[in-house]
Design a protein that fits this description.
Distance between the termini of chain B: 40 Å
Shape of chain A: globular
Number of helices of chain B: 0
Radius of gyration of chain A: 13 Å
Largest sheet of chain B: 7 strands, mixed
Largest interface: A-B, 24 and 19 residues
Order of helices and strands of chain A: EEEEEEEEEEEEE
Structural class of chain A: mainly beta
Order of helices and strands of chain B: EEEEEEEEEEE
Largest sheet of chain A: 7 strands, mixed
Structural class of chain B: mainly beta
Number of helices of chain A: 0
Strand content of chain B: over 45%
Helix content of chain B: under 10%
Distance between the termini of chain A: 36 Å
Shape of chain B: globular
Radius of gyration of chain B: 13 Å
Number of strands of chain A: 13
Oligomer: heterodimer
Chain lengths: ~110, ~120
C-alpha cells in the first residue's frame, strides 16, 4: 500500500496569512503515460463529509476559491491557502488514487492564530 | 442536484451483520465507479471497497475482505454494503462516494457502532 504522510499535523495561522501543508507519498503517484499525478486534497469541517478541493495535484474543483492551490509531482506535494479566512478552519487530507487501496494522509488541522 | 444518501447504520453487537444502502440521484448512476469510505471516531478517512459501473468488478480493503460485500442495483440507482462478522474496530461513519478518479461526491454518511 502507498503510505501518505502529511506535515505538519496541525498549524495555526493568522487571518490573511499563508498556510502551507505538505504531503509525501511512499512511492510516486505520477502516471508516466499521461503525465498526471493521481493526488487529491480534501477539506473536512466538523460534522461534514470531506469535500474535494484539488485533484490531479493542481486542478481546482469547481467552486473552490482561488486562494487554494496545489503543487508538486511524483512523491512530494503541497496545498497552499494564500490568505487564510475564518471559514478555512478545517482538517485537510491528501489522498492518492494511483493504486488500490486508495490511501489518505493522517490529516492536518488548520486553526486561526 | 447530484445527491448520495446513505442509510442502514445502527448499533450492532460484535459478530453481527448490517446492510448499508446508498440512494443516488441527479446523475447517471450506471456510468460511475462507486466506493465506500469509512471514518472512525476522531480518525481520518479510510477506503473500504469499490465497484465498477456494471457491478462485475469489486475490490476490498485488507481489513474487510471476506467479511464485507459491495454490490449495486443500477435499475434502482442504489449502492449496497453487506457487512458480516462485524468487529468493534468497524465502528465508523460510512460514506458512499462517487469516484470518476478522485472522490468527487460524498454522501453525508451513516453511523455504524459495533459494541456489546
Amino acid at each position: 500500500d502507498i503510505v501518505m504522510t502529511q506535515s505538519p499535523d496541525s498549524l495555526a495561522v493568522s487571518l490573511g496569512e499563508r498556510a502551507t501543508i505538505n504531503c509525501k507519498s511512499s512511492q510516486s503517484v505520477l502516471y508516466s503515460s499521461n503525465n498526471k499525478n493521481y493526488l487529491a486534497w480534501y477539506q473536512q469541517k466538523p460534522g461534514q463529509p470531506p469535500k474535494v478541493l484539488m485533484y490531479w495535484a493542481s486542478t481546482r474543483e469547481s467552486g473552490v476559491p482561488d486562494r487554494f492551490s496545489g503543487s508538486g509531482s511524483g512523491t512530494d506535494f503541497t496545498l497552499t491557502i494564500s490568505s487564510l479566512q475564518a471559514e478555512d478552519v478545517a482538517v485537510y487530507y491528501c489522498q492518492q488514487y494511483y493504486i488500490t487501496p486508495q490511501t489518505f494522509g493522517q490529516g492536518t488541522k488548520v486553526e486561526i492564530k | 442536484e447530484v445527491q448520495l444518501v446513505e442509510s442502514g447504520g445502527d448499533l450492532v453487537q460484535p459478530g453481527g451483520s448490517l446492510r448499508l444502502s446508498c440512494a443516488a440521484s441527479g446523475f447517471t448512476f450506471s456510468n460511475y465507479w462507486m466506493h465506500w469510505v469509512r471514518q472512525g471516531p476522531e480518525k481520518g478517512p479510510v477506503w473500504v471497497s469499490r465497484i465498477n459501473p456494471d457491478g462485475s468488478s469489486t475490490d476490498y480493503a485488507h481489513s474487510v475482505k471476506g467479511r464485507f460485500t459491495i454490490s449495486r442495483d443500477n435499475a434502482k440507482n442504489t449502492l449496497y454494503l453487506q457487512m458480516n462478522s462485524l468487529r468493534v474496530e468497524d465502528t465508523a461513519v460510512y460514506y458512499c462516494v462517487r469516484v470518476p478518479y478522485y472522490m468527487e461526491v460524498w454522501g453525508k454518511g451513516t453511523t455504524v457502532t459495533v459494541s456489546s
